[in-house]
Amino acid sequence: MSRYVPEDVETKWQRIWEEGGHFHVEADPSRPKYYVLEMFPYPSGRIHMGHVRNYSIGDVVARFKRMEGHNVLHPMGWDAFGMPAENAAIKNKLHPAAWTISNIDSMRVQLQRLGYSYDWRREIATCHPGYYVHEQRFFLKFLEKGLVYRKHSPQNWCETCGTVLANEQVIDGCCWRCDQLVVQKDLEQWFLRITDYAEELLADLDKLVGGWPERVLTMQRNWIGKSVGAEITFPLAAPLGGTDGADGITVFTTRPDTLFGATFMSLAAEHPLVASLIAGKPQEAAVTAFVDKVRNLDRIVRSADDLEKEGVFTGAYCVNPATGREIPIYVANFVLMGYGTGAVMAVPAHDQRDFEFARKYDLPMQVVIQPEGATLNAASLEAAYVDPGVLVASGEFSGMQNEAAKSAIIDWLDGSGRGKKSINYRLRDWNISRQRYWGAPIPVIYCEKCGIVPVPDVDLPVELPRDLALMPDGRSPLPHAPSFTDVACPLCGGKARRETDTLDTFFESSWYFARYASAREQDRPFDPAELAYWLPVDQYIGGIEHAILHLLYSRFFVKALRDCGLIAFDEPFANLLTQGMVIKDGSKMSKSKGNVVDPDLMIGKYGADTVRVFILFAAPPEKDLEWSDTGIEGASRFLSRLWRLATEELAGLLTPVAPCATAESLGLDGLPPLFAELRRREHATAAKAGADIRERFQFNTAIAAAMELVNFLYANVEALRAEPKGAKAVSSAVGTLLAVLSPIAPHICEELWQSLGHKTLLIEQPWPAHDPSALVTDTVDIVVQVCGKLRGKISVARDASNADVERAALAEVNVVKHIEGKTIRKVIVVPGKLVNVVAN
RNA sequence: GCCGGGAUGGCGGAAUUGGUAGACGCAGCGGACUCAAAAUCCGCCGGUCGCAAGGCCUUGGGGGUUCGAGUCCCCCUCCCGGUACCA
């Protein structure tokens, strides 16, 4: 047989699988379905090792589940809108569409070279009008339902990208994509009411426990940031009260039990009441200066590690609704307009931040909660007391436990309209407007007379014009293209202007997983029957970096589309696997570090199967994987060994026998014990690799198990060849080896399977069903400990009684030495495993 | 600060329910083959003492539970990830 030439083997089988349509899949209610999905890539031009890892993991799962008899949906597509296309287009004088499509074409070839078992008939590209027309309809449906709205407010603005960002897309005060510092800019934008779903998004995380990594659930919980407390209104003190339409300042607090200790009020610099509070007061100039300073320093300093707490008195007072006392109103740099109401009732005795602030500005402090067995004194307090205790100086509530006092005080306030129970979320509504060209147009029209008018369904999709030249500064050309913007109002026929913002690209990725179920459906986004069969995704696989952004948006979208009657499930991804990064020399691969390993080069040098084996063998999926040039040599060596084993060492011996064939059919009787041992190892390999893949996604140990079987076969080649009657047993073992490795290294296994004389394809074989009784041996090795220390090993019959095992253990030579002159206190026998002799 | 996760040979990692620590691979060392090299095959490969049999030590550090702890409990150190004035 010929030398192992990966390229020949791989192109051969890729062609056969492709021509046979072997990975095409149709819904079949008579069979159990399995939907495995890897996060689709942005078509940047070349795949990188992170993709190879992600898609290799997914492909093993897909191929394995097929072998286990599932009807497996395993699709691939392209997250094809986004800024890199615009940048590249400007640089290379190419249209973003042309750049994107050519990238998709070359990346598809790369993926196909790796032998991934996708149903390519379902391929989607989000920049295709046939895709985004559906999300334009979603948008209009959301608009109709009030789930999407327009709002004017300060927005996160990235100067480099020339567009706004959602809160989730601001990382450490910088743009998630380009790391540019984000600034605030007043703009009117489209928002999606994700906050309407905050409670469900939080509660349903419990349904994902067990299926999703705990840390992703925690990150989402923290991001949603639910706080239970109260909204309490502090009336403004005369002469301000009621004079300017503002009755008071409403705060959100999680500690209504400390209300009697609120001795001043802190407002955010951006709080709308600040201007009217200071108007005409001596403090006006100082406050204005402070507000300007805080707002200008904004993000930069506010994101600094420990910004000094500062504030300034407004000259105005409000009234603590519990004590009736007037308290001063401050503007403070640590109060955020974006959380709660932008106003905080300050309780310095029981909040560390307020404590520091009060000490700095010499503000009064009132202890209202006393710990058990101690008496706090405001004057001598060294830090805020934040733990539970009993209320004091709190009117009728004095003497209550503080936890009970929370609801008691809320009820008391509620009775007189001064406050109410309130739940606050950290989660903000999702800003979906982007001032970019290469995205899906937002399908509305602004009419001078009629206002905001949805684009009528017959006019959908609003296609992104492809004949526009990009602006050299990277700004969107859409607002400057009359052919796009100038339209007649669909309602009155009058002069109107088309919306020129496009949708955040996370809009596309929030529903693509459902589109695969019926990717070519034209008039509607989904075929309900297909959706009902395939969704939700059984196993989703991707990087941890999407723990919040994409995964939260997708969860929200599913719920929103469900409430629009378009889908009928609650959560998109039943199980989530977050794979670690591929690193080199200790850090993430990047051009600037010059440590990038190109998958294509590796495939060219070693073949796709070797690349797959290495990337799956080097680390378990959740951990970061250090790329190793010698490590991939090892993977290559292993496949060559496998090849030589089947084509040289055991040549002439191998026949088309079913993997894990029955003992009777192999005719083991009368053969040397080696053959029974081979069969035991064959079945153990199938059992171990199956469990590792099925239950733990632990491909590294599955591969290790296969390597052990290969090593065993090599070690016994001579003896195996010497017994022609054992040929069937050897063939069964080799067949099992190939079947077990086939999800991981599909091409070489298919080729060797054929070389065994099989007429069927290996990809159509079931996973080898091991016979549990084949794993049982006549004798078992037992380790013998004396006082917990290993002193010897004995071999006993599998069904030996504990007494027999104990007797044998105590007779072991080295054990005898160690118990000599001692009294045996106790003997512990763990059947089949171990004996521990306790003696002193 | 808070919340997760982690620390095992020279390296990547294994040990699934508390039961032989170091599977498998990489690197290294020795040998066979070869004029030689590559490739391949065989052997060794945590530290330490010992001719050997075998002993002692060893899973970041310290304590504990247990016949027995990498695994469970408590304390500490360090590393990684997330998050951070959230009222």
Automatic annotation (TrEMBL):
Biological process (GO), any one? leucyl-tRNA aminoacylation
* Residue span, Methionyl/Leucyl tRNA synthetase domain: 36-179
User: Which residues hold ATP?
Assistant: 591
Q: Where is the Aminoacyl-tRNA synthetase class Ia domain?
A: 427-628
MF terms (GO), sorted A to Z: aminoacyl-tRNA deacylase activity; ATP binding; leucine-tRNA ligase activity
Keyword check for Cytoplasm, yes or no: yes
Provide the catalytic activity annotation.
tRNA(Leu) + L-leucine + ATP = L-leucyl-tRNA(Leu) + AMP + diphosphate
Name the domain of life. Bacteria
Q: Which UniProt keywords apply?
A: Aminoacyl-tRNA synthetase, ATP-binding, Cytoplasm, Ligase, Nucleotide-binding, Protein biosynthesis
Subcellular location, record wording: Cytoplasm
Question: Family assignment?
Answer: Belongs to the class-I aminoacyl-tRNA synthetase family.
Q: What is this protein called?
A: Leucine--tRNA ligase
Protein species of origin? Solidesulfovibrio aerotolerans
